[in-house]
Amino acid sequence: MAAGSVAGAAAAADGPDPLITELQDWASYTGAGVDETPYGMPIEYEAHVVRRNVEWLTASPISSINFTPIHALDGTITPQGCAFERHHSGAIDMRKEDWRLMINGLVDRPLVFTYDDIERFPRENHVYFCECAANTGMEWAGAQLNGVQFTHGMIHNMEYTGVPLRTLLMEAGADISADKWVYVEGADASSNGRSIPMEKALDDVLVAFKANGEALRMEHGYPVRLVVPGWEGNMWVKWLRRIEVVDRAVESREETSKYTDVYEDGTARKWTWVMDAKSVITSPSPQMPIKHGPGPLVVSGLAWSGHGQITRVDVSKDGGITWETARLGKQGDSKALTRFYLDMNWDGKPMLLQARAMDETGYVQPTKQQLREQRGENAVYHNNCIQTWYVSAEGVAENVEVS
Amino acid sequence: MSKSLKHIFLPAFGGTAAMLALALFVANRDYGQSRIETLEGRVTQVQEQVTAAGDNARAEAQRAAELEAKIAEVQALAEARVAGGANLTAPAPQPANTYGLGRTAHEEEIAAWDVDVLPDGRGLPEGRGDVYWGEEVFAEKCAACHGDFAEGVDNWPVLAGGFDTLGDEDPVKTVGSYWPHLSTAWDYINRSMPFGEAGTLTPDETYAIVAYILYSNDMVDDEFELSHENFAEVEMYNAQGFVIDDRPDLEYSQWRTEPCMANCKPEVEVTMRSVFLVETPPEGGSESIMNQASVDGLPSFSADGPAFVPEPVAQPEPEPASEPEPAEEVDEASLLIERGEKVFKKCAACHAVGEGAKNKSGPQLNAVLDRPIGSVEGFAYSKTFQAALEEGRTWDEASLIAFLADPKGTMKGTKMAFSGLKKEGDQEAIIAYLRTFLDP
User: Fold this and answer.
1) The complex's ipTM?
2) Are the CB atoms for B19 and B46 separated by under 8 Å?
3) pTM score, two decimals?
4) Is the link from the previous residue into A284 a cis peptide, with omega within 30 of 0?
């Protein structure tokens, strides 16, 4: 490991750097032409920054999940190509021309829309995070997987373009009284039906067809998906094909047998839709060791809350004894990722790095112990505990649990 | 940019100095060559009046100050924008009337798609099926993943048993022990099962499968028949086992407080290290490897930092960057293989192929061409496959094409639930694809 310099610029290297003193090919020959890459992929040297799955987590990769490489990203927007995927019957390949959206049930006019119809309704742009309710779920039983991609990578954050769900409900003359529900389902074999209470359906739910400026990717529901801001990712139905206004929750598989949590006494909690405030340090982290030795160090991380805006993130270097408030790289929108930084001068000693988010409701991200006291260890979903990385004097970070 | 620079520069100079500065500035910006020429004469006239050195120094200082002021101004504007000053962003308008988009849904269309079943049984079609028949249907269509007794194969869901385990460390959540509504099972099986052949069950088959699942949970006896008429009478074991999200009362009320910032606890110890180290190979995916390291030897922490600095442990070097794959020539054969790879997605739920492929609910398919039928070690074949093995039959291209087109017709009694590849050419494509895996 290269020795870092504690103060000031590093002393001159052994000799002049040939990368500077010698004429390099790229400074002499010409590069790629504009006709070579109609749609660009990241340069080959970034080929390791990809979604990855953990094979033993599920029975089949078709009904499974992979993880966003959040350790290697910065800023707040997740590129579509590496944004995590979760399918229940695989990602389906559907043309826009073959897509239909039906709205029926307690409506004056049951309607069918084509893709072209959807693009004629007034649309909005919003940045929202989408987090799977099972993100960090493995960690209930203690530190399990060594990598922030695997402990916290079931999340992405995109700028969506879409039509408010409320607009479509009004178009069909839906019964929008508060005790009604909106049941949404996808066109894939799982259909992944979920019931959404009318209040949320009228609030900020979007019928989205673009993400980060371009069409949705197949794996994210091309051509049209539902965006349910701040609520668990399972409700963001992909390949959206039907919206039904009903007088009660359907109690589908995804809202009874799954996405519910069992507590210590065997009772289960259901309809846990909101994703509570959470944060995590993405670098340093197990996949992002400190390679430069002591001296200036950028601690970088993400914070988010399904209740609104992140107002503050605190960072601890000693496992939660002392906290200091981090700088926000960019204040995220409501229900969107916020980037935070702690710009520090590392003394080269071991650290127990933690981050703690606060949102606009005054909610403070809990410790693992606080969560366990409330819920026990049998839960699967909604683990928003404070994460700890032990960073050794060599700069290697590891997923640990602390007292 | 040039426009804003003019604004910075111009007010800084007075009288003749301004002309000099303007001339120099315009020259530097390399435009208005003709204007430079007209100004040149006048510049010469005033040159005596300025001491070049002093003027330069003043101009530099002035320029720096002006730029700083400009930056401050830009920042203030940006902050004002963030603070939510003038902003034309507006939500999508909602008209008094409708937009008149879309068309009326036909009755038949609603009937085709609106198949969800509510807990009170609304939405159920007429039909019936008993436990006996249900066992047959289940064995044919479900048991490959869920097991003959709904006990689950590999990681596939267990559907039966687990009663009174919900308070245990690893609760077994089955239709019997956990699901609060029977409608959920009927609805999900009807629309999304069997895995890979969703939507193909008749209502009677679904009633029969659900009846069998109830039976395998000891919730009904073997004479039981489930129908739309008695559906609402079935009582679910865990019907009262759910509470609606009570985080606001139990958690938010406690955790919406000003957090501790200093001396929050006297000491912190590492109590557990990651169970798995996760390797991330260049070809993708991940490898979980047991972490042998123990918490011994890690320092405890106080407000003064770590109690000691452990000796360094040798760390493996990070993975090298991967080499790009050479581009392959596209010809007809590779197009067929490519198509086969796509078609194989229909099989991938149950069959693995490629390096290290293991048996799933179907046998692995490496070197399947010309291998004896029913010969993969460790796979529990159906009687019909066992018989084929004894007869010495092998998978040649013709027999595989026939089997893939109509599995149950060619191998009566096969456990394979898949109904067959119906599209012409798909069988050949998949065989071309499978031929690329010659190593057993």
Assistant:
1) 0.92
2) yes
3) 0.80
4) yes
